[in-house]
Amino acid sequence: MEKTPKQSNIEHNKNLKEKFSLNEKIEQFYSKPESDEELVHRVGIIKDIPENIDTPKVLLKLGDPSRPDKFVHMKDEDQRDYIIALPIEKRAFHRDIANFCRKLYGKDLKILGGGWIKNEEGKLVVYGQSQDFGEADKETVRNILSQAFPDVKIESVSLAQESISKKQEEYMKTLEKIDNEVSKDLYADVVQRKAIRMGYDMTLLPTPIQGAEENMSYMIYRSENGTSFGIDTLYLGYKDKDNSLNTKEIAQTRWNLHVANSKIENGILTIEFQTDGQNMTISQPVNSLENLQPFSNLNDTEKIILDMYKNNQFVYQENDNSKVFHGSVNS
């Protein structure tokens, strides 16, 4: 026997408690009406617009607690804010929400932006952006929602914060791939402190030196601006007598650098690499690595350009669009 809408809604609300363990403060946004009176009341909430133009129109009607829903931030001709979130299964696109609201309220609403809203550990989080309308001002949205629902914890995550979080996650995942302790310390030191960033960079996974696997590794960092200029830097990482990491830049090339062989034999470190069609060799006694002079094939103009990037590293370290592609395999 087919369930009535009322029976379906009662079962839905029961699942909210049992399956998702939502607290009452969050449950209100996901529950469905269980009586005709409640249905009428909710329809009124949806349609009503506050008389005071300084009071925003806020509607959070969310769908499945296991996935996010979309919201749109709008203003009417009186400059009243509208924050409207509807179930994604009902309104698949941000423009669907906007069109629904224009018809429902009979107003030419100006779209300020959109994003996503989700339930997370007993709070609501607004984040992301709309492909149709761009990013809403998350802090403004959070403030409006917090005023409308003062008992509900609401957090906002800007695109910049999302970008930083994603970058950190990719970095940490790459570190987890590296088993060798020296290699892991070298990677962290290069990426966090030593590398010259140009906005479109790539790292190659560190490689232990043959004959000193537990104490010495090398890695390549490829700095690229994405268009016309880039360099490869070869770094050596090794533990000193105090078991502290030393990171040393040992080669810098205008063209891609490929390490063919690395080893320690009879107390001599040897690294063979190719760049610009040439075979090169670095050779240095292990007991005097601090005296190793780095190789470079950059001309004077390229060195000037490189110094410009060195002197403006804060731009690339703080720029959300600055990319580092982590953990490519050495070749």
Automatic annotation (TrEMBL):
Which Gene3D superfamilies did the record assign? Answer: Janus/Ocnus
Q: Which InterPro entries match?
A: Janus, Janus_sf
Domain of life of the source? Bacteria
Alphabetized Pfam families for the sequence: Ocnus
The protein depicted here goes by the name: Uncharacterized protein
Native organism taxonomy: Bacteria, Candidatus Nomuraibacteriota
